[in-house]
Amino acid sequence: MVQAYSLYEGSFSVDKSRKFIPFDPLLDDPKDRPGAMFIRVHPFLIQTNAGLVLCDTGLGYTDDSAVLQLHHNIRKAGFRPEDVKYVLMSHLHKDHAGGMVTFENGTGRIAFPEAEYIVQRGEWEDAYSGISSSYRTEIFDVIQRSGNLVLVEGEGKINDEISYALNGGHTAHHQAFHIQTDDQHYFFGGDVLPEPEEIFHNYVAKYDFDGRRSKALRQEYWAEGAPAGWIFLFYHSKNITIGRSQIREDGTYKLVNAKL
After folding, report:
1. pLDDT range class, residue 3, cuts 50, 70, 90
2. Contacts from 100-107 at CB under 8 Å and sequence distance 24+?
3. Which of 10, 2, 43 is nearest to 27 (CA)?
4. Where are the membrane-spanning stretches (predicted)?
5. Phi-psi region of 193 (alpha: psi -120 to 50; beta: other; left: phi over 0)
6. H/E element holding 232?
């Protein structure tokens, strides 16, 4: 049984200003937003034997009572935010890191006080360097003071179920995660593998730090993960968000919805 949940935050358009503008495909016309990309945002929650695991944290939107949408979504899935034990950060761009903390009356608080926040050291240093407007340093200031930050380097293991690997590609110090619990192997590739279409219509993305590396890695992940039965988590997918391979008669693999 698949124990992973999409914590869907919505559909957005993003132009060169790097602002995320809500986009409703049923009401809004893409022609009114020339030059924009259209993406969806799906943080993921996974049940493991060591506790709840959160893969990236979305944009950090809140309701009128300053309650994180991410917290609402976790409760809607049947869980409690305070039971999250690990927050696995692929990288720290604002559409992935916004829900790491919550702000009320200008005061920032860590969003998951019982969790370890797993971040690559190089990504953390780059986030503070001012190299990109995609980073919100006021978020990281709160994390820095919390005592919950765990900086890792290269590849390794968090526990018997969770491993990480520096893969670069989207940012210089982007990382991917493998979560193996019971008989399931979940793979979270962050923005190196954000949509299933990028497996089968492989291309060099202009928004990547190293697009050629990302392109090659996507093929490597599918070549290894498809025959092994990995469950792929796609953060920006417009269709299949939690997918697994299914073998065809000719021996090749297609992607199907793992939740069905």
Report:
1. very high
2. 100/57, 100/60, 100/139, 100/142, 100/143, 101/60, 101/139, 101/142, 101/143, 102/60, 102/62, 102/66, 102/67, 102/68, 102/71, 103/62, 103/66, 104/66, 105/66
3. 10
4. none
5. beta
6. strand 231-233
One-character DSSP codes across 13-71: EE-TT--EEE--TTT--GGGSTT-EEEEE--EEEEETTEEEEE------B-TTS-BHHH
Q: Could you write out the DSSP letters of every residue in 140-172?
A: HHHHHHHS-EEEE-SEEESSSSEEEEE--SSST
Q: Does the structure show a pLDDT above 90 at 194?
A: yes
CATH architecture of 4-257: 4-Layer Sandwich (3.60)
Distance CA 100, CA 110 (A): 6
Token pair for residue 22? 């809500």
What 3-state class would DSSP assign to 74? helix
Question: pLDDT of 106-135, one tens digit each?
Answer: 889 999 999 999 999 999 999 988 788 889
**How many CB atoms are located within 10 Å of the residue 83 CB?**
13
Nearest to 96 by CA among 194, 241, 172, 217: 194
Which helix (H) or strand (E) is 218 found in, with range? helix 211-228
Spell out the residues 6+ positions from residue 201 whose beta carbon is closer than 8 angstroms to its own. none
What residues have CB less than 8 Å from 4, skipping those under 6 apart? 44, 45, 46, 47, 184, 186, 231, 233, 242, 258
Nearest in space to 188 (alpha carbons), one of 111, 60, 90, 96:
90
